[in-house]
Write a sequence for this structure.
């Protein structure tokens, strides 16, 4: 046996790396579970998702009009009132909550994030023979970068499906022998997942764009090689997947509703639809995306100097993902998944190297990681007992005021702030009809602007109160309207705490 100093040193280095990998895997489990428990329920949006899911389950059908707001759909161009682009997400979230409370809900959400942002990257890196060390470090950064948006929202299903689509396409494209050969198994998988995706979240359009991009890439290659255009796996997949999106309660009308969501006027003033500025990178949750993007660009420049351009389409998608993530911060998490695939292509090897490091990408190891992370999520949920929604960064849900509202039902039209509207919808079994909530993409812009005018006592706010026949007001105590009406003889203060005020028009 050779026990030279070099071999001993090498053995110690491998042992140190293996121990480090195990510790980092444990840390990843802690990171995902702790982050989900502490952060994922901090957005009031979860309330309206669960409330709509409860309504659908209780009634066994989708609502014809919105059951919670008396202003949604009040104008002709928004006459449908509610857009069914994520109804299955709402049902699944409520079913998980009903099955085991927040423990079950958060455990499944943790599993989705772990699978999309760690398991799938690990498997793609392994399939492209990226070294264990490099792939592990990249998976760590991808997992940490995913922390920029860890919320219980339907977009997590888009992240899951994007990861699945990228994994299927990479495996197919590295194994295929000819562009002309149509892989019907891959076509079927894409169509199946797309049919589900179209009912979970409007982000299914991203999947169509990916397939269309890959189909176009293959078609161009066919034209250069054979001087003719023929059907390929991805052109067939694109056509069938577009057709499969019609399998939803709205049918073809789902596509008609998409412009309302993607180009809604209120998106221009909604933070998560804004561009990312340099000052935004002061936020630690954006550092992961910044590091990954910078590393990707550097590797891509080196890659483009080579003669071989295998997988160039994924490098192009990676550049597109960086630009998209910078222009719309809401899709940054999806951009990270495209970067992941680009990294795999940039660092791929022709065959597996004989590394003696611990094979952390094995199915058994990843299964243990999944089980451990889900268990930690259950433990943290028991320790912290997160509410829906959870107080975070200066936002305290108005639970006390909502309880008062539940015990003292109001009769007239209610004016409320969007966040309180969410909490009312979920926390009260038979809630009063609200003026507005955080589903801004479903409301006519006039409703939102009128709310702002009334709550800030701006412009013709008094005429607006009369026009909407407002009889009760539920707003933050700091709102200008709360202050004005509290001093008015025409209004009676029913409830007040350090946070909220409820007022009723004197009879």
């Amino acid at each position: 046996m050779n026990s030279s100093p070099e071999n001993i040193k090498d053995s110690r280095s491998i042992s140190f790396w293996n121990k480090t990998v195990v510790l980092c895997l444990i840390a990843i489990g802690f990171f995902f579970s702790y982050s989900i428990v502490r952060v994922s329920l901090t957005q009031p949006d979860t309330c309206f998702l669960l409330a709509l899911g409860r309504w659908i389950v209780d009634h066994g059908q989708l609502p014809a009009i919105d059951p919670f707001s008396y202003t949604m759909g009040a104008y002709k161009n928004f006459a449908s009132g509610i857009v069914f682009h994520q109804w299955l997400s709402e049902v699944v979230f409520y079913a998980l909550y009903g099955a085991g409370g927040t423990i079950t809900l958060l455990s499944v959400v943790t599993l989705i994030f772990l699978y999309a942002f760690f398991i799938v990257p690990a498997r793609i890196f392994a399939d492209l023979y990226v070294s264990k060390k490099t792939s592990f470090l990249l998976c760590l950064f991808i997992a940490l970068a995913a922390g920029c948006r860890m919320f219980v929202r339907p977009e997590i299903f888009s992240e899951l499906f994007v990861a699945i689509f990228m994994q299927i396409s990479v495996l197919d494209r590295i194994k295929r022998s000819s562009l002309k050969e149509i892989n019907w198994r891959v076509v079927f998988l894409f169509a199946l997942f797309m049919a589900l995706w179209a009912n979970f979240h409007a982000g299914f359009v991203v999947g169509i764009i990916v397939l269309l991009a890959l189909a176009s890439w293959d078609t161009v290659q066919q034209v250069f090689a054979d001087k003719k255009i023929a059907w390929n796996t991805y052109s067939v997949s694109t056509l069938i997947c577009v057709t499969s999106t019609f399998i939803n309660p709205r049918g073809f009308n789902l596509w008609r509703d998409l412009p309302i969501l993607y180009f809604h006027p209120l998106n221009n003033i909604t933070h998560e639809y804004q561009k990312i500025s340099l000052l935004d990178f002061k936020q630690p949750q954006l550092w992961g995306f910044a590091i990954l993007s910078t590393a990707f660009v550097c590797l891509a420049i080196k890659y483009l100097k080579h003669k071989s351009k295998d997988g160039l389409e994924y490098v192009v998608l990676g550049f597109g993902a960086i630009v998209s993530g910078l222009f719309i911060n809401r899709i940054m998490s999806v951009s990270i998944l495209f970067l992941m695939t680009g990294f795999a292509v940039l660092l791929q090897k022709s065959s597996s190297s004989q590394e003696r490091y611990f094979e952390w990408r094995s199915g058994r190891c990843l299964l243990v990681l999944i089980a451990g992370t889900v268990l930690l999520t259950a433990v943290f949920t028991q320790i912290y007992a997160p509410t829906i929604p959870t107080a975070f960064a200066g936002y305290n849900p108005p639970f006390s005021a909502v309880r008062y509202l539940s015990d003292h039902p109001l009769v007239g039209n209610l004016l409320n702030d969007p966040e309180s509207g969410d909490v009312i919808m979920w926390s009260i079994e038979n809630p009063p009809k609200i003026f507005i909530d955080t589903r801004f993409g479903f409301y006519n812009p006039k409703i939102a602007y009128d709310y702002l005018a009334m709550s800030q006592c701006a412009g013709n706010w008094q005429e607006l109160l009369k026009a909407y026949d407002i009889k009760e007001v539920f707003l933050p105590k700091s709102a200008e309207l709360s202050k004005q009406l509290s001093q008015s003889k025409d209004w009676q203060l029913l409830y007040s705490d350090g946070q909220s005020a409820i007022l009723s028009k004197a009879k």
Q: What stands out?
A: Confidence is low (pLDDT under 50) at residues 75-81. The beta strands are 413-416, 470-476, 491-496, 500-505. The radius of gyration is 26 Å.
